[in-house]
């Protein structure tokens, strides 16, 4: 009888221990899940050589949005190819402009890496998940430097609506004939000699195409010829709100 009571007591202790262990594991699992769901994205460092490689690979560059967070005058003096300009002071007010990249790759860059790091932290705080802080233009000699200003589709349409710009459509002539931005002329990097007489030197130029690549090629040649040029990174294949006319 005494032995039976001891066994029963041991079983009770064992069952109690198992229950406590189960509760502890459940609590830990729940806490770990909570921590994961509330975790923030890491900000990865990116070497200048890697960014240069991305900017020179058409397939790769489409997977990233590069944001130069320096002031406008610094950006206009020369910046990494395909980078848009949103200064550190403006970035929190322009989150809606890049909201479609919340789950995509964003590279931030400045002169030394300090402002871009601060900008990345702002994006991190606002739910952007894939962030890279690149070597600054003052610490790495980028090969892909340009003076072509890049904007996204919405801003391109807003600029075109002002009527203050010449507009070049770098798509195929048949697509231009079907529909294009109001006032646009058709041309590409191979027909520059035909384009120049139609573009007053004192008037800035907007360029666009299907995806931003053909138009960028035109833009770089126009900049070399002395024009001020703004290129749309979002082409007609990517930005559906372009107001195209026949």
Automatic annotation (TrEMBL):
PROSITE patterns: PROKAR_LIPOPROTEIN (PS51257), RHODANESE_3 (PS50206). Keywords: Signal. Gene3D superfamilies: Rhodanese-like domain. SUPFAM superfamilies: Rhodanese/Cell cycle control phosphatase. Residues 60-149, 161-244 form the Rhodanese domain. It comes from the Bacteria. Residues 1-27 form the signal peptide. It holds the Pfam family Rhodanese. InterPro entries: GlpE_sulfurtransferase, Rhodanese-like_dom, Rhodanese-like_dom_sf. This is Rhodanese domain-containing protein. It comes from Treponema medium ATCC 700293.
């Amino acid at each position: 009888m005494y032995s039976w009571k001891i066994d029963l007591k041991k079983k009770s202790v064992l069952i109690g221990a198992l229950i406590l262990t189960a509760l502890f594991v459940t609590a830990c699992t729940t806490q770990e899940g909570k921590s994961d769901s509330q975790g923030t994205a890491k900000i990865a460092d990116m070497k200048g050589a890697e960014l240069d490689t991305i900017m020179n690979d058409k397939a790769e560059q489409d997977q990233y949005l590069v944001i130069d967070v320096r002031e406008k005058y610094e950006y206009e003096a020369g910046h990494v190819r395909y980078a848009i300009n949103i200064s550190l002071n403006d970035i929190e007010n322009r989150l809606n402009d890049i909201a479609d990249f919340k789950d995509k790759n964003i590279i931030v860059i400045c002169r030394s890496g300090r402002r871009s790091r601060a900008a990345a932290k702002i994006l991190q705080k606002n739910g952007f998940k894939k962030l890279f802080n690149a070597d600054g233009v003052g610490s790495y000699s980028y090969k892909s430097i340009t003076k072509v200003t890049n904007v996204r589709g919405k801003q391109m349409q807003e600029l075109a609506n002002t009527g203050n710009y010449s507009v070049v459509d770098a798509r195929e002539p048949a697509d231009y004939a079907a529909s294009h931005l109001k006032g646009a002329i058709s041309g590409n990097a191979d027909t520059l000699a035909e384009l120049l007489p139609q573009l007053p030197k004192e008037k800035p130029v907007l360029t666009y195409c299907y995806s931003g690549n053909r138009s960028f090629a035109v833009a770089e040649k126009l900049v070399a010829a002395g024009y001020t040029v703004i290129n749309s990174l979002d082409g007609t294949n990517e930005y559906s709100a372009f107001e195209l006319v026949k």
